[in-house]
Write a structure and sequence with these properties.
By secondary structure, the protein is an all-alpha fold. The protein is built from five helices and no strands. It has one domain. Helix 1 runs antiparallel to helix 3 and helix 3 packs antiparallel against helix 4.
Length: 118
């Protein structure tokens, strides 16, 4: 394998693993549900995208033709993660999960909860 292919694949693998680690750490360490939601939806999605792009580059180089499977998985992940996060946040707001005291714009969340209640 050529050096520059190895370098690009390695860079994507390292960058992806750093993002996945930071996202997982955020999921484990952040204090409440709303802040914990950012870990898997932001950093981990980007990290998985980097890992899948590295896999796509490697498989494309090895097989000699474009590997579309990894690209489709990445696009599906980038489309579904924000939708899932929105649905989880809306459900948490509907069930009135507590928000940290130091959270800014609490009035905004209170107005949203009032609109949701019948």
């Amino acid at each position: 394998m050529e050096f520059w292919i190895e370098l690009v694949v390695s860079a994507f693998l390292i960058l992806g693993s750093i993002f996945v680690f930071v996202g997982s750490l955020g999921l484990a360490k952040l204090p409440d549900f709303y802040t914990r939601l950012h870990g898997p939806t932001k950093a981990t999605t980007l990290g998985m995208g980097c890992l899948l792009i590295a896999s796509m580059i490697f498989v494309t180089y090895q097989q000699g033709y474009l590997s579309v499977h990894e690209l489709l998985i990445t696009l599906f992940l980038l489309i579904t993660a924000p939708v899932t996060a929105h649905m989880l946040a809306k459900t948490a707001m509907h069930h009135e999960l507590e928000i940290l005291d130091k959270t800014s714009n609490k009035a905004l969340s209170q107005r949203a909860r009032e609109r949701m209640s019948p």
